[in-house]
TrEMBL record:
Keywords: Magnesium, Metal-binding, Transferase. This is Isoprenyl transferase. Transmembrane segments: none annotated. It comes from Rurimicrobium arvi. Pfam families: Prenyltransf (PF01255). Homodimer. Its cofactor is Mg(2+).
């Protein structure tokens, strides 16, 4: 298969990204961690544009975890301000590019100004049909799974659901990502090889791609390299190679 053919075939529908390494990137330059987060926004821009251009339908970015609230207050405040400023600055361009913005996570835990800006971006882009840009904010998978479990337990308690009706589909419908397919590819930058409480249920069969590149150095070429790596993998979902490709 030629590279061009490959490029258009087997593009993952949903790519999830742990954007890691902003702090180390800044430190290497003798700068404050926040400097790294600012540089990281340029990578976000480039990856969003590239994902949209090659036909990825869903891109989930882990922008702020539940655990990130424990960082020094100055960094938390700076990250929240950066999120608000970035979405404010970029929303017209995203809208023009037919991108639909979504937020997953504990929305109520976000500062009111952040909630307002995100809600406006979601409302403005609600009818767009191109890339779905899903920002995970104040998100952690354990929080999400516990929340789903509580909702299901409530439904069983009030009699609207029986225990044997709790299928994968029902469980999925209680997750923050109920409107989205599960990611086929998860990318983590900066050399760390952990999932860090990100989409634990949804990543069950995802291909995992780890790169030593720090997030601010991750752009179009690095994203395309991850896609190309994914395209060379065989996804078996617990079956054998022969079942997937009978002529093999
Ligand atoms: C991880 O690097 C990065 C974050 C916790 C924040 C990511 C946020 C952005 C890239 C900016 C805003 C994003 C959007 C979607 C507008 P780290 O600080 O953990 O780096 P380290 O591991 O080197 O310390």
């Amino acid at each position: 298969m030629s590279n061009t053919e490959k490029e258009h075939k087997n593009i993952p529908e949903h790519v999830a990204v742990i954007m890691d390494g902003n702090g180390r990137w800044a430190k290497e330059r003798g700068q404050d961690r926040v400097y790294g987060h600012h540089a990281g926004v340029l990578s976000v821009r480039e990856v969003v544009n590239t994902a949209g251009a090659i036909g990825v339908k869903y891109l989930t970015l882990y922008a702020f975890s539940t655990e990130n609230w424990n960082r020094p207050k100055a960094e938390v405040d700076a990250l929240m301000e950066l999120l608000v400023a970035t979405i404010r600055k970029e929303v017209d361009e995203l809208h023009k590019n037919n991108v639909r913005v979504h937020v997953i996570g504990d929305f109520d835990a976000l500062p009111p100004v952040c909630q307002k800006e995100m809600q406006e971006a979601m409302d403005m882009t609600a009818a767009n049909t191109g890339l779905n840009l899903i920002l995970a904010l104040s998100y952690s998978a354990k929080w999400e799974i516990l929340r789903a479990t509580r909702q299901i337990a409530e439904a069983v308690k009030n009699g609207s659901l029986s225990a044997d009706e709790i299928t994968d589909e029902v469980f999925h419908s209680h997750l923050c990502t109920s409107r989205f397919p599960d990611p086929e590819l998860m990318i983590r930058t900066s050399g760390e090889t952990r999932i860090s409480n990100f989409l634990l249920y949804q990543l069950a069969y995802a291909e995992l791609y780890f790169t030593p590149t720090l997030w601010p150095d991750f752009g179009k070429d690095q994203f395309l390299a991850a896609i190309s790596d994914y395209q060379n993998r065989e996804r078996r979902f617990g079956m054998t190679s022969e079942q997937i490709q009978p002529s093999k």
